[in-house]
């Protein structure tokens, strides 16, 4: 079996909120393999975003062990090996859509034809007509689609998407997912999507549920029929 993308053992992350401590992720134990398609579900505040940030190496656990056997050190993951689609809008306002999508390539120094890669990523999600627009002129849903184009442009080994369809109507959300899954078909890239939408979750092959920071069944695989 190939090295796991992520190997997590008893990972914990707590935040201080005034005099209180909030346990956002509690003893999470799981593995993520290439090609996995994972939905992360759970109520607001259950720890989904915190877990995604830990998986991306953006945040560090307070306890436990979090390793990326197939990818390397935490500092080396973003944006080339792992793409993170943030829950909050994250396009840079002064840059056009095409320039925003090019950012991971420029940041990682990828040796590729940037213009061609950006054009292809935008086309994947039917966004070609938005290439020269500034983010402030886009709808919230269009911004989410552009953020997804930015996630695939560098062909990362893992895409972590935090409620990527949260601003989209059902039909547009499914179309985004169709385009993404079609794009990833036949690749080794793994995908984790945090979502409140069961229609999104059931497009994945596995669902992990979170409750008060705990990954239910300790990350065991619940296989979608
Ligand atoms: N930067 C922070 N500082 C303090 N507390 C935080 C911070 N980020 C998250 N939390 C707390 O950690 C817990 C988990 O938050 P998280 O954002 O991971 O939940 P979530 O499952 O992504 O929720 P949602 O579905 O609303 O996006 C919550 O209690 C939240 O208040
Ligand atoms: Mg969240």
Structure description:
The chain is α/β, with parallel strands linked by helices. The chain has a single domain, classed as P-loop containing nucleotide triphosphate hydrolases (Rossmann fold), CATH 3.40.50. It is built from six helices and ten strands; from the N terminus they run βββαββαααβαβαβββ. The strands form two sheets. Strands 3, 5, 6, 7, 8, 9 and 10 form a seven-stranded mixed beta sheet that branches. A three-stranded antiparallel beta sheet has the order 2-1-4, covered by helices on one side. Helix 5 (170-184) links the parallel strand 6 and strand 7. Helix 2 runs parallel beside helix 4 (140-152) and helix 3 packs across helix 4 (140-152). The mean pLDDT is 95. Adenosine-5'-triphosphate (ATP) is lined by residues 15, 17, 22, 24, 42, 44-50, 87.
List keywords for this structure.
Rossmann fold, 7-stranded mixed sheet, 3-stranded antiparallel sheet, globular, binds adenosine-5'-triphosphate, binds magnesium ion
Write the CATH homologous superfamily: P-loop containing nucleotide triphosphate hydrolases
> How is the CATH topology named?
Rossmann fold
- Spell out the helices and strands N to C: EEEHEEHHHEHEHEEE
Q: Provide the gyration radius in Å.
A: 17 Å
- Enumerate the distinct ligands: adenosine-5'-triphosphate, magnesium ion
Count of β-strands: 10
Named CATH architecture: 3-Layer(aba) Sandwich
Strand content: 25-35%
Total helices: the number is 6
- The secondary-structure class comes to alpha/beta
Give helix % range: 25-40%
Which stretches are low in confidence, meaning pLDDT under 50 for 5 or more residues running? none
Mean pLDDT level: 95
Shape: globular
Q: How would you sum up the major sheet?
A: 7 strands, mixed
The level 1 CATH classification is: Alpha Beta
Give the domain tally: 1
Intertermini distance: 24 Å
């Amino acid at each position: 079996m190939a090295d796991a993308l992520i190997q997590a053992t008893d990972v914990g992350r707590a935040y201080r909120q005034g005099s209180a401590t909030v346990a956002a992720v509690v003893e999470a134990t799981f593995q993520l393999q290439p090609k996995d398609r994972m939905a992360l579900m759970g109520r607001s505040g259950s720890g989904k975003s915190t877990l995604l940030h830990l998986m991306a190496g953006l945040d560090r656990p307070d306890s436990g062990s979090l390793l990326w056997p197939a990818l390397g050190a935490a500092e080396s993951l973003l944006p080339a090996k792992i793409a993170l689609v943030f829950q909050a809008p994250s396009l840079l306002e002064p840059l056009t859509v095409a320039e925003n999508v090019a950012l991971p390539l420029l940041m990682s120094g990828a040796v590729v034809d940037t213009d061609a890669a950006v054009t292809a990523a935008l086309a994947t999600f039917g966004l070609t007509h938005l290439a020269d627009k500034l983010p402030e002129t886009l709808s919230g849903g269009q911004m989410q689609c552009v953020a997804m184009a930015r996630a695939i442009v560098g062909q990362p080994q893992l895409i972590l998407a935090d409620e990527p369809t949260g601003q989209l109507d059902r039909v547009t959300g499914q179309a985004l997912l169709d385009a993404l899954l079609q794009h990833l078909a036949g690749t080794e890239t793994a995908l984790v999507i945090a979502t409140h939408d069961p229609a999104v979750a059931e497009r994945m092959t596995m669902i992990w549920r979170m409750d008060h920071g705990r990954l239910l069944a300790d990350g065991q695989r619940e296989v979608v029929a």
